[in-house]
């Protein structure tokens, strides 16, 4: 292919189809459970504890062991040696030992107490039913009231201080019209469609693992910590991940148990959590109780903003969610008081679920703010525009870029906010809602290599993952644009722990972090090629055309054959990396969103139907308009699902979750969702990173649910403060006001 | 009859009567395209076509399918030529992680046929229902946690030749 024909449709920002699309629509993308090992794996079936806390006092596996096809029943009595759970202390939580089957202590409901390993799934599943066990239960502790949460977490996820504020909050609340509100959000789960699954193989020296994990490097650390193995004897592959949403940031029971099986039997062993097991054995988001007090001047200016969050923290696992951070950033106020407290509970692991802090914080806080605007009879869009902050409301730092006001203004225009019309259809009334969202942006250290082969093909290696975010595609576009090369000459190799260490996927940091590393690798290759051609360094125009490199343009253009430049048949590899300080840290970096919704509420049944959602987003430079739009819409749907449906209920007697399947834990289905539209207000943010992009993976959800909650109020005057807004709660309030 | 046809190839039924069609595809045939998202018939990720009708492979015992013809996602394309709905999924970006996609496409193919044959859906009993809601209703047995729903609907409607009722 000649130079300069890089399709515009393949460069940064283009709405290019996913490069892995064909594999995914033909069922050929390899997820963790699709064994690539030479011999078929044995199947491990997990038996879990039926109480949340206690001691395993009786265990009889003889019935299971004698079954056809059973190779082993692994329990704490015969498992391989493991380091204590949570060690070493100085390692991040995803790199610590996640030991199990190593003692008689029951850490939470569903905690594994035995694993049957058999030739087939059917054999293992049946034999597991024959295991007899007794657990002597211990008393459990859960969070039920706000005041029970007294522990100050060391920090909140995302590096936030548990407490932050400015001004005299008591005075600000006392001097103006004051609103006190308590909102609650329930336990929630990621519910990625792919249950956590792992196949491990051990040949006596090397541990090879197919896992479903968002971050590979720390997953290697985790296995090294757990099994006291050198990290260089462990290789994890995770080329395709069937959804993560935080629940696959680290490795979980499937991976530890598959490795235990493989280490013990020296055969490949596959462990797939059942869907029911995922609810207990993968992390969940704890419930929140959010006490808020807000005050507002007669002119509609926020004066005092108090947000006190109470949440559970899982025993032995120091994760706290920054549920109140929306109160610190969304609006300016004379006084702000944000506080997070936790209670240590006997719950399964509590960790990140998509948009930690903001997903449920924005749900409550943006509903509360809406109550003010509605009570004062100020247009909710106007109220928000009058109160958003020109600088960080607490620190006073400038934003790197901030288009929140444009999101609100232009979003309202496109949604038709000022032209909204009310109607009644039979027993249904419509209503409109708005909410905003601010999501912190960050860069995480990342490295990638770029290899130029003598035939002119380019291969990127990085242990980055594509969890549906479109990483394969946007990295292809970055290389295609920089080296003016056709996408089909580029291979992106992801999800292999032997590759250079990346940020991994999570916290909306993946695209900017891994992308900037790849961009830097491209620049390194350009420079190296200039050097090999004997040209001045920094000649920015270096293009690849087939197996030729073209330098410069016009009169000074030069062309060299790649094999000639490389002066050998061996490929040329360069690396690129990025570190957080490359961004400009004197500025605060946020992506911004304005959400609009129209719903219809049935005044008899209390059913809410979402007619439409519209989002206006600003997140720096957009790397692929198609995949970015998909991710944002997906987040908006999460918000809808949080507002109306999701509620993981915990049995107060034994701490177990009650509704552990999709018939009982409702996530939005196709017909729950109305028309979804969005607009992108694009302004590259080069203070955020060299690519100019900012995170979008969690932006779509931030504020989305509150817009729907606010629309429900607009439709029928019902304000439900304990999410989700289910028909029973609406009917109850309607009947009280009738 | 003790065989089953899968993607036009005949296979002996498994010896273990407990083996579901989904586990048969995975364990016995190494056909991983139909996905196990719940194993309870609640998510639709394992949707396949059995004699042209969409079914959850996790809810079928293979031994009951003697003489049946099954098409999985691996059998939807005509060799290298993608089915129009597969191409529409790519063009409309109707997936993100891809795990539910096999089931969505099989369900979409079957739903298009149901629309052609004017088979009723639950929304037909709602006085205000629209064609769009009908399509959404028919695809609500297939969960997508990435939230690709709007694009799935665009893919299915853009390749649906059923005239408006």
UniProtKB/TrEMBL annotation, chain A:
PANTHER family: ALDEHYDE OXIDOREDUCTASE MOLYBDENUM-BINDING SUBUNIT PAOC (PTHR11908:SF123), XANTHINE DEHYDROGENASE (PTHR11908). It comes from the Bacteria. It comes from Alteromonas salexigens. InterPro entries: Ald_Oxase/Xan_DH_a/b, Ald_Oxase/Xan_DH_a/b_sf, Ald_Oxase/xanthine_DH-like, AldOxase/xan_DH_MoCoBD1, AldOxase/xan_DH_MoCoBD2, AldOxase/xan_DH_Mopterin-bd_sf. Pfam families: Ald_Xan_dh_C (PF01315), MoCoBD_1 (PF02738), MoCoBD_2 (PF20256). SMART domains: Ald_Xan_dh_C. This is Xanthine dehydrogenase family protein molybdopterin-binding subunit. The lineage of its organism: Bacteria, Pseudomonadati, Pseudomonadota, Gammaproteobacteria, Alteromonadales. Residues 26-139 form the Aldehyde oxidase/xanthine dehydrogenase a/b hammerhead domain.
TrEMBL record, chain B:
This is (2Fe-2S)-binding protein. Keywords: Iron, Metal-binding, Oxidoreductase, Ubiquinone. Pfam families: Fer2, Fer2_2. PANTHER family: OXIDOREDUCTASE WITH IRON-SULFUR SUBUNIT, OXIDOREDUCTASE, IRON-SULPHUR BINDING SUBUNIT-RELATED-RELATED. Gene3D superfamilies: 3.10.20.30, [2Fe-2S]-binding domain. Residues 2-76 form the 2Fe-2S ferredoxin-type domain. PROSITE patterns: 2FE2S_FER_1 (PS00197), 2FE2S_FER_2 (PS51085).
């Amino acid at each position: 292919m000649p130079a300069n024909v890089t399709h515009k449709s393949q460069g940064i920002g283009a709405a290019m189809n996913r490069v892995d699309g064909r594999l995914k629509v033909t069922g050929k993308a390899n997820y963790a459970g699709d064994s690539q090992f030479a011999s078929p794996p044995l199947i491990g079936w997990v038996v879990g504890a039926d109480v949340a806390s206690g001691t395993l006092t009786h265990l009889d596996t003889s019935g299971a062991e004698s079954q056809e096809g059973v190779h082993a029943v692994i329990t704490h009595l015969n498992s391989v040696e493991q380091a204590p759970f949570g060690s070493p202390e100085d390692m991040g939580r995803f790199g610590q030992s996640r030991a199990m089957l190593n003692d008689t202590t029951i850490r939470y409901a569903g905690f594994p107490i035995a694993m049957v390993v058999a030739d087939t799934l059917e054999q293992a599943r049946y034999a597991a039913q024959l295991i007899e066990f007794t657990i002597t239960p211990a008393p459990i502790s859960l969070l039920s009231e706000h005041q029970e949460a007294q522990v100050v977490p060391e920090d909140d996820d995302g590096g936030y201080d548990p407490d932050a504020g400015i001004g005299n909050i008591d005075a600000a609340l006392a001097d103006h019209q004051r609103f006190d509100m308590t909102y609650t959000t329930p336990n929630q789960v990621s519910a990625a469609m792919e249950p956590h699954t792992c196949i491990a193989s051990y040949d006596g020296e090397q541990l090879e693992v197919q896992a479903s994990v968002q971050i590979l490097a720390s997953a290697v650390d985790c296995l090294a910590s757990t099994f006291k193995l050198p990290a260089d004897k462990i290789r994890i592959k995770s080329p395709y991940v069937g959804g993560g949403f935080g629940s696959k940031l680290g490795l979980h029971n499937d991976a530890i148990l598959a490795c235990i099986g493989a280490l013990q039997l020296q055969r490949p062993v596959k462990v797939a959590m059942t869907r029911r097991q995922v609810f207990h054995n993968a992390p969940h988001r704890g419930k929140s109780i959010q006490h808020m007090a807000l005050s507002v001047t007669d002119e509609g200016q926020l004066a005092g903003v108090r947000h006190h969050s109470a949440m559970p923290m899982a025993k032995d696992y120091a994760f706290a969610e920054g549920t109140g951070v929306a109160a610190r950033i969304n609006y300016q106020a004379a006084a702000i008081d944000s506080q997070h407290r936790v209670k240590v509970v006997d719950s399964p692991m509590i960790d990140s679920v998509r948009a930690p802090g903001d997903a449920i914080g924005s749900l409550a806080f943006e509903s509360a703010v809406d109550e003010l605007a509605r009570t004062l009879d100020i247009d909710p869009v106007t109220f928000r525009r009058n109160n958003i902050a020109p600088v960080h409301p607490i620190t006073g730092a400038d934003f790197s870029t901030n288009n929140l006001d444009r999101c609100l203004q232009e979003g309202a225009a496109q949604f038709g906010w000022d032209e909204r019309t009310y109607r009644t259809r039979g027993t249904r009334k419509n209503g409109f809602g708005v909410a905003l969202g601010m999501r912190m942006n960050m860069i995480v250290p990342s490295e990638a290599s770029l290899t130029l082969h003598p035939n002119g093909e380019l291969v990127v290696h990085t242990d980055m993952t594509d969890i549906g975010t479109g990483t394969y595609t946007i990295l292809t576009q970055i290389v295609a644009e920089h080296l003016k090369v056709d996408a089909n000459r580029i291979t992106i190799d992801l999800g292999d722990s032997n590759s250079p260490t990346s940020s991994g996927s999570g916290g909306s940091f993946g695209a900017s972090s891994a992308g900037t590393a790849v961009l830097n690798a491209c620049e390194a290759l350009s420079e190296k090629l200039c050097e090999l051609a004997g040209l001045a360094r920094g000649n920015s125009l270096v293009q690849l055309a087939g197996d030729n490199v073209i330098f410069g343009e016009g009169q000074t253009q030069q062309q060299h054959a790649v094999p000639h430049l490389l002066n050998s048949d061996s490929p040329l590899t360069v690396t690129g990396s990025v570190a957080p300080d490359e961004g400009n840290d004197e500025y605060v970096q946020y992506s911004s969103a304005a959400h609009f919704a129209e719903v219809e509420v049935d005044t008899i049944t209390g059913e809410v139907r979402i007619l439409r959602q519209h989002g206006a987003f600003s997140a720096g430079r957009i790397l692929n308009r198609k995949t970015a739009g998909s991710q944002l819409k997906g987040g908006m749907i999460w918000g809808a699902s949080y507002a109306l449906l999701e509620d993981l209920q915990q049995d107060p007697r034994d701490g177990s979750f009650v509704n552990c399947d999709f018939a009982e834990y409702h996530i939005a289905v196709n017909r729950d969702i109305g028309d979804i539209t969005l607009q992108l207000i694009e302004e590259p943010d080069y203070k955020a990173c060299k690519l100019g992009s900012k995170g979008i993976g969690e932006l779509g959800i931030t504020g989305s649910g509150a817009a729907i909650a606010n629309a429900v109020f607009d439709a029928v005057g019902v304000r439900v403060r304990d999410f989700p807004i289910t028909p029973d709660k609406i009917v109850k309030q309607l009947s009280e006001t009738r | 009859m003790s065989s089953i046809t899968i993607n036009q190839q005949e296979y002996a039924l498994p010896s273990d009567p407990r083996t579901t069609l989904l586990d048969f595809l995975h364990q016995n045939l190494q056909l991983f395209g139909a996905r196990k998202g719940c194993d309870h018939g609640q998510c639709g990720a394992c949707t396949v076509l059995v004699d042209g009708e969409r079914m959850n492979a996790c809810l079928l015992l293979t031994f009951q399918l003697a003489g049946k013809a099954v098409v999985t996602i691996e059998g939807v394309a005509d060799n290298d030529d993608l089915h129009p709905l597969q191409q529409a999924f790519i063009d409309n970006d109707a997936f993100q992680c891809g795990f539910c996609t096999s089931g969505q496409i099989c369900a979409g193919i079957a739903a298009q046929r149901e629309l052609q044959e004017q088979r009723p859906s639950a929304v037909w009993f709602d006085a205000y229902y629209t064609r769009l809601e009908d399509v959404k209703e028919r695809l609500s047995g297939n969960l997508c946690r990435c939230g690709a729903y709007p694009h799935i609907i665009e893919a299915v409607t853009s390749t649906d030749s059923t005239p408006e009722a």
